[in-house]
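[Q] Does anyone have a clean structure-token version of this?
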Amino acid sequence: MGKLDNIESAVLVMGCPQVPVQTTAVLYIAYKLKQKGISVNIAGTPAARMLIKYADPESHYFDAIKDLDKTIGDIVEKREKYPLCFVFIHNDAGVSYATTMDSVMDSDVYPVIFGSNAEELSDEIKFECEKIVAVAAHNPKPLINSIDGVMKWDA
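[A] Here you go.
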């Protein structure tokens, strides 16, 4: 049985979009999830949401873009539930978001860790999970390779 079997929806959590590869990675994962028939919800900061909105103006790769803080509140209050979560991390705030999502969700949380200090940030993740890690800031290929290696989309 594959990792994505029986998954109906996912949330992709975006923090500050300071590192260019984040938007590419979010859209790539969203695309792959949509291919599997999974509803994709993107929760992010205002700037992160704008990048996604203008990168995919017709919403081919996602079903909804949501405010990150509101989404966390909706999960805590049980108004929303996602069996799958990806949290994009390139700084300490991203680690905090990942820890928060792990504590409020009863689901698989995949930290997607990138940037020049990806290995150090990876060591800060203390909850049980399968990490996606690549030293990547401008060239998305190392991060995409890491995503594919962990997710094994065709398995």
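[Q] Thanks! Anything notable?
[A] Residues 55 and 62 are 11 Å apart (CA to CA).
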